[in-house]
Design a protein that fits this description.
Elements lengths: L9 E5 L2 H4 L38 H4 L3 H14 L4 E5 L2 H4 L10 H16 L3 E5 L19 H16 L6 E3 L11 H5 L6 H25 L4 E7 L2 E4 L4 H23 L4 H10 L9 H7 L4 E5 L3 E4 L33 H15 L3 E5 L17 H19 L5 E7 L19 E3 L11 E3 L1 H11 L6
Parallel strand pairs: 1-2, 1-10, 2-3, 3-4, 4-5, 5-7, 6-8, 7-9, 9-10
Antiparallel strand pairs: 11-12
Helix pairs in contact: 3-5, 6-8, 8-11, 12-13
Bound molecules: 6-O-phosphono-beta-D-galactopyranose.
The site of 6-O-phosphono-beta-D-galactopyranose has 14 residues, from loops.
Length: 467
């Protein structure tokens, strides 16, 4: 039995516009939900500000200046042998307020150049249409609580599918769509814990995704469109049936987002919950058929950690950066931010999702945030990151070769040091490439290849034989 990865396995890495580009207001770009959050810190969640905080460093102002350095960065990705580069188009570069009829040509031209750079290096772009970058201008409608935002999103999607036809054929509609249930501001500019509000917003995102899938197929039959799930997988705190039920309830709170987009309808357990809670979905004629017709072509997800959930754990996902969620897992080490390191959980998650949906899967985020050290001689010895990635790739290999799970590719998080979404730090470094910039945006912005850069290059070159 071959122990290799499939021949055209999409090895690569992932970024998000708001966490790497900077240029938060350049060339006509409007403000997005990611642009008005506070900087956060090691154990302080980024929060929502009601205005842009001038002069105070926070991610979207500076990030790592990918907006001006994307050619250098993509050339470095190519040096590692990338087959695929997952990135997001910042909606507010294309439609600054979100509701314009005509797109911002300067924003289109920027991404023209990004995809030209990818094409030059033979790298397949995988494009997330909305990665926590909802235009602030849509807040006047109530953001995703208002059905008109579905049409604004579809107008944006149509421009993207047509402009980049032939350059991009792998798309993701929303990043971590289930984050609507944990951090609704990031997921869609919803500043409310009210479940009716959140489920209304989620409904409109499901509808928008389903319509975008169909539109993408009509514009280019080559297009493959996926959903993206924040991989919240958890184990029961004990074999006590109450702990097992509590864990099952948590998993269903998250997996229902995949149920709707992979099966094309709301699961019975969710509709029963809505009945009990008095939640009413804003359904209109034809929506049910749209959800069925707009099922996704693949399920992509992020995998970083696993949780433990039990009857006493009110796992409300207060935030993952160092804030413990649920019980500790005494069998697992953690990162400096308290995230469990559980490679075997990756194999478990691949099997769980494939068993449930029977469609191709893709890991589009997997990585380890750590405080890296730039040595005097310009090297960065991140063997902890190599070990983390190696062990996760080994488990992915088992899922493919032992369990028969079809995995399209693996875009690790992140090829280059990038702003942390939850804490806004640069200190929480994920990259295979070090960027000389600190939490205040000070530094030379020089790129430095870490030990993991050279290691991952060998992994890709050997198609996963070398680990
Ligand atoms: C995921 C996001 C990514 C990235 C990642 C790492 O939820 O999709 O954008 O941020 O988390 O988490 P963090 O950046 O908070 O360390």
């Amino acid at each position: 039995m071959s122990q290799a990865f499939p021949e055209h396995f999409l090895w690569g890495g992932a970024t998000a516009a708001n966490q790497c580009e900077g240029g938060y207001n350049e060339d006509g770009k409007g403000l997005s939900t990611a642009d008005i959050m506070t900087a956060g810190s090691h154990d302080v969640q980024r929060e929502i500000t009601k205005e842009v905080i001038k002069g105070r460093y926070y991610p979207s102002h500076l990030a790592i200046d990918h907006y001006h350095r994307f050619e250098e960065d993509i050339a470095l990705f190519a040096e590692m042998g990338f087959k695929c580069y997952r990135m997001s188009i910042n909606w507010t570069r294309i439609f600054p307020q979100g509701d314009e009829k005509e797109p911002n040509e300067a924003g289109l031209r920027y991404y023209d150049k990004v995809f030209e750079a990818c094409q030059k290096h033979g790298i397949e772009p995988l494009v997330t249409l909305s990665h926590f970058e909802t235009p602030l201008g849509l807040l006047k409608y109530g953001s995703w609580t208002d059905r008109r935002v579905v049409d604004f999103y579809l107008n944006y999607s149509e421009v993207m599918f047509k402009r980049y036809k032939g350059k991009v054929k792998y798309w993701i509609t929303f990043n971590e769509i289930n984050v609507m249930s944990t951090k609704s501001w990031m997921a869609g500019g919803i500043d409310s814990d009210d479940e009716q509000v959140r489920m209304t917003a989620a409904y409109h995102q499901f509808l928008a995704s389903a319509k975008a899938v169909q539109m993408a197929h009509q514009i280019d039959p080559e297009n493959k469109v996926g959903m993206m799930y924040a991989g919240h997988f958890s184990y029961p705190n004990s074999c006590d049936p109450e702990d097992v039920q509590a864990n099952d309830d948590f998993m269903h709170k998250m997996l229902f987002y995949c149920d709707v987009q992979c099966r094309g309808y709301y699961p019975a357990y969710k509709l029963k919950e809505f009945e009990r809670e008095g939640i009413v979905l804003p359904t209109q004629d034809g929506d049910t058929e749209e959800l069925v017709r707009g099922k996704v072509d693949f399920l992509s997800y992020s995998y970083y950690l696993t949780h433990v959930v039990g009857k006493e754990t009110d796992l409300v996902m207060k935030g993952l950066n160092g804030v413990k969620t649920g019980y500790n897992n005494p069998y697992l080490p953690t990162t400096e931010w308290g995230w469990t390191i559980n490679p075997m959980g990756l194999r478990y998650s691949l099997n769980l999702l494939y068993d449930r949906y029977q469609i191709p899967l893709m890991i589009v985020e997997n990585g380890m945030g750590a405080v890296d050290r730039l040595e005097e001689d310009g090297t960065v010895h991140d063997d902890y990151r190599i070990n983390y990635l190696r062990e996760h790739i080994q488990e992915m290999k088992k899922a493919i070769n032992v369990d028969g799970v079809p995995v399209l590719g693996y875009t690790m998080w992140s090829p280059v040091d990038i702003i942390s979404a939850s804490t806004g730090e640069m200190k929480k470094r994920y990259g295979l490439i070090y960027v000389d910039v600190d939490d205040q945006g000070e530094g030379t912005y020089k790129r430095v290849r870490k030990d993991s850069f050279y290691w991952y290059k060998k992994v890709i070159l050997s198609n996963g034989e070398y680990l």
